[in-house]
Inverse folding.
């Protein structure tokens, strides 16, 4: 039986077109799928669109359209984008499809019949942009704790899902399956969240109608996240007549999601599955965000980057390579067109592209295009080969972990080693002496072989360029197996190489029409006098202790040394630092801020930190040099 691999992307909201940040998840999932296919897995790669909910209903209304034709238009754009980006998905699920509704009804009913969904009255807050319910306690100064926007008060008869019943079982599952939530930092966040206690979830709404009807009572529609998460099994036919795909591919090997929606995938989704007595997915991987220098990409800021424009300008492979290479595993990465072009010029045009064209040109110049046989190998050859083999191992490990950034960095070690090999062996000098002819032939063979190995390994990321390489070096890259990169010497001497065009022509940054990113207009607070400023007593203090605050996943309780005094400060930095990362840091304390009680703890001052809009990123301001405790900052 063939090994199977089931990978999913989130299903995107068709409330607007997708930007380059959305493309990141899908490109990662595509690279993983291609890599697994090269490893002989039977892959099922699912993506789709999340079409119900109040937000979509409202967006359609603003355009004076019915929701269905409204989403149809946008979803067409999604499909078109994925085609342009060479996304090799196996199925595209739309939550408005009948097959999906059938599964959602089936599972809702199953959980209801079991007694884990019950009717009650919901009274609380709802954030429509996030499609999320909150309790009063969870709000951040009365606003949505996720996006900072206004929430709406809701009181309606609703169906509730007994999440609380499964709290312990979920914690046990997470504990027993250490790889379930990746990367590790996200796992800690989720465990803390669950430990604060899970409340039953409201899973139906009556105040709007754009959703899947609750199967047991008219007038209610199913909560959009309950509906959306079910896509991962509705696309496989669960609860439908033909469920062969479900039998073959479930449980999913990995749900790839952005960090903002890890909570839905590691708490609500597993509990739905537990209640429905379905196996849980093996892994949820929460990747970081693609940010702009100026912060978050958002439609309201009007600074979203349209991936289609970039693809037309640079080609799909280049965008794919940039996304995979530039965003470190699990962390945020910064997008700018300059950074994209720099990667292109350095990695693709200069390092890889040139390696291919120089090598093919030399085989033509010295051997009439016919690949010579390796006969006289030396230590340098052995080193090149060793580098390739080590890189193969490390890239395999990285790709297995979905760490494409490290994987591609590894591959470029062979690219660089091969370029250095050209300088070391200086084929143009060997060509001058007839007695060096065998050595020259060996050198060129090794180079073409290095290119073969590199090209096999870049295939999951750049499925197009390999076709162009294949036109110059007739090796079947298109159907290559991953393992083909582990061997050395697979090319047949005598193979005729064909001279071709430049793979990646250099781009002159200066001639590029790169739209300036509008610097945000900064609205400052009212001017203050120096005397006002002087009222602040800012001091250097050392953090000596840091611990979590119970039932508050954002807060840490810090102890700082202010001269001979030890002070306690409660600080909202828990999502960005492990406790031991803070201890020992010299930071700046607003020392004369009136003490205030936060979560029952008296906080004596405030630590300065720089932070991006709502939870995107934060760094505590710290000094790199040692200063005596209580040094004045002004
Ligand atoms: N519809 C829900 C997902 C339901 S899955 C059962 C949703 N849709 S979304 O369109 O808002 O976002 C989809 C994905 O895009 C999320 O994983 C989100 O993290 C990701 N991204 C949105 N902006 C992004 C960046 N700037 N960078 C990287 N990923 C980003 O949430």
């Amino acid at each position: 039986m063939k090994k199977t691999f089931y990978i999913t992307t989130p299903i995107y909201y068709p409330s607007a077109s997708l930007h380059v940040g959305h493309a990141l998840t899908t490109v990662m999932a595509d690279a993983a799928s291609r890599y697994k296919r090269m490893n002989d897995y039977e892959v099922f790669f699912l993506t789709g669109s999340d079409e119900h909910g109040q937000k979509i209903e409202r967006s359609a209304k603003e355009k004076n359209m019915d929701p269905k034709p409204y989403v149809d238009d946008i979803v067409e754009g999604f499909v078109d984008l994925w085609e342009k980006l060479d996304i090799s998905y196996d199925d595209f699920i739309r939550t408005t499809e009948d097959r999906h509704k059938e599964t959602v009804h089936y599972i809702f009913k199953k959980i209801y019949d079991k007694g884990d969904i019950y009717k009650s009255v919901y009274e609380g807050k709802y954030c429509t942009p996030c499609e999320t319910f909150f309790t009063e306690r969870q709000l951040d100064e009365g606003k949505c704790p996720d996006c900072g926007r206004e929430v709406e008060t809701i009181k309606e008869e609703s169906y509730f899902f007994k999440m609380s019943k499964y709290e312990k079982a979920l914690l046990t599952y997470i504990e027993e399956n250490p790889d379930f939530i990746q990367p590790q930092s996200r796992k800690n966040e989720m465990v803390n969240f669950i430990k604060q206690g899970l409340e039953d979830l409201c899973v139906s709404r009556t105040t709007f109608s754009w959703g899947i009807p609750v199967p047991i009572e008219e007038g209610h529609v199913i909560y959009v996240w309950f509906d959306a998460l079910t896509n991962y099994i509705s696309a496989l036919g669960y609860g439908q007549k033909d469920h062969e795909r479900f039998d073959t591919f479930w449980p999913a090997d990995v749900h790839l999601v952005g960090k903002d929606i890890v909570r839905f995938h590691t708490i609500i989704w597993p509990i739905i599955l537990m209640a429905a007595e379905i196996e849980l997915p093996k892994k949820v991987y929460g990747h970081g965000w693609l940010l702009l220098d100026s912060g978050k990409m958002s439609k309201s800021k009007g600074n979203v980057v349209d991936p289609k424009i970039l693809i037309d300008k640079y080609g799909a492979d280049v965008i794919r390579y940039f996304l995979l290479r530039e965003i470190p595993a699990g962390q945020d990465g910064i997008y700018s067109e300059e950074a994209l072009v720099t990667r292109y010029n350095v990695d693709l045009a200069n390092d890889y592209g040139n390696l291919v064209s120089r090598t093919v040109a030399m085989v033509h110049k010295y051997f009439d295009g016919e690949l010579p046989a390796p006969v006289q190998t030396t230590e340098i050859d052995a080193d090149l080969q060793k580098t390739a083999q080590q890189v193969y191992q490390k890239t395999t490990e990285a790709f297995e972990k979905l760490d494409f950034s490290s994987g591609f960095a590894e591959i470029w070690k062979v690219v660089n080693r091969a370029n250095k090999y050209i300088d070391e062996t200086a084929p143009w000098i060997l060509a001058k002496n007839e007695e060096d002819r065998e050595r020259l032939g060996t050198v060129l063979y090794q180079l073409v072989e290095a290119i073969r190995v590199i090209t096999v390994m870049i295939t999951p990321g750049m499925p197009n360029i390999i076709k162009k390489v294949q036109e110059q070096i007739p090796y079947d890259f298109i159907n290559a197996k991953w393992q083909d990169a582990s061997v050395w010497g697979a090319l047949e001497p005598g193979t005729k190489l064909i001279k071709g065009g430049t793979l990646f022509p250099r781009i002159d940054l200066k001639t590029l029409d790169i739209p300036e990113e509008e610097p945000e207009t900064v609205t400052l607070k009212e001017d203050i006098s120096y005397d006002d400023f002087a009222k602040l007593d800012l001091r250097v203090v050392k953090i000596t202790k840091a611990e979590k605050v119970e039932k508050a996943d954002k807060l840490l309780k810090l102890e700082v040394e202010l001269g001979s005094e030890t002070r306690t400060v409660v600080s909202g930095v828990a999502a960005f630092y492990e406790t031991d990362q803070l201890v020992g840091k010299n930071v700046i304390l607003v020392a004369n801020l009136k003490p205030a009680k936060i979560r029952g703890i008296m906080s004596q001052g405030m630590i300065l930190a720089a932070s991006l809009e709502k939870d995107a990123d934060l760094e505590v301001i710290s000094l790199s040099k040692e200063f005596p405790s209580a040094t004045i900052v002004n």
Observations:
- The first strand starts at residue 4 and ends at 12.
- The mean pLDDT is 92.
